[in-house]
Design goal:
261 residues; mainly alpha; ADP-ribosylglycohydrolase fold; 15 helices
């Protein structure tokens, strides 16, 4: 979960100023937490409290209204009586990592991932993106090998994970769909040697960098057993205390390791 938030912050400055290289400052002066972090934390709080996911997203999201929400989601966020709007945007995948950390069986992970998506992103591709991301986090947290994670995601969800970053990077551009983001984020994790390397992989594709790095970062956090101490400290520094308190409580309750490679 912290890895997802860190990825969001690291990638935020490159969302509209893309890079096609892994050689960039990890935390640039313009970095900030975006809607990806806010909604990830909202999902975490909903899990802890047993709340409705839509209510938690609205309660927390409205405290941070200028964090680069998509136009349709911003309208959904601000209006109590708006239901799901058949979206397959990558917002369903970027906020789901707490599910992979909190639940201890595959069925629960898939069920809850779908529930987090369906409140807004009810299109089958939106639900699939959330489920694939949460399942990858869950499998990584349980110490399963990368080739097993790859095989399961490919078989269950039909994503093409045989491509390489080197092949994807030249022609890849800004894409806010699940189907154009989640496979690339998972490949960024699969090709990584560490948490930092995974996030650099994601940003280097030059797409929707904060969301790519958020999805990749959540999986990498689970697989590598946390984030580097410097990344942890910088992430804490850049979040409001209110949000960080939720993060800390979630990690304590679900015994999520915070410091890893």
């Amino acid at each position: 979960m912290i890895g997802a938030i860190a990825g969001d912050i690291i990638g935020s400055v490159y969302e509209f100023d893309p890079v096609k290289s892994k050689d960039f400052p990890l935390f640039s002066p313009g970095c900030r937490f975006t809607d990806d972090s806010v909604l990830t934390i909202a999902v975490a709080e909903a899990i802890m409290k047993g709340d409705d996911y839509a209510q938690a997203m609205r309660r927390i999201g409205r405290n941070y209204p200028k964090r680069s929400y998509g136009q349709h989601f911003h309208y959904w966020l601000m209006e109590d009586d708006v239901g799901p709007y058949d979206s397959f945007g990558n917002g369903s995948a970027m906020r789901v990592s707490p599910v992979g950390f909190a639940y201890d069986d595959e069925g629960s992970v898939l069920r809850e991932a779908a529930r987090t998506a369906e409140v807004s992103h009810s299109h089958p591709e939106g639900v699939k993106g959330a489920q694939a991301t949460a399942l990858a986090v869950f499998m990584a947290r349980r110490g399963q090998a990368k080739h097993d994670i790859k095989s399961e995601i490919e078989t269950r969800f039909g994503y093409d994970l045989d491509r390489t970053l080197e092949a994807i990077r030249p022609g890849y551009s800004f894409d806010v769909t699940c189907q154009g983001t989640v496979p690339e984020a998972i490949i960024s994790f699969l090709e990584s040697a560490s948490f930092e390397d995974a996030v650099r992989n994601a940003v280097s594709l030059g797409g929707d960098s904060d969301t790519l790095a958020c999805i990749t970062g959540g999986i990498a956090h689970a697989y590598y057993g946390g984030v580097p101490r410097g990344v942890l400290e910088k992430t804490k520094e850049m979040l409001p205390p209110y949000l960080w308190k939720i993060v800390e409580e979630f990690c304590r309750r679900y015994q999520v390791s915070t410091v890893g490679e």
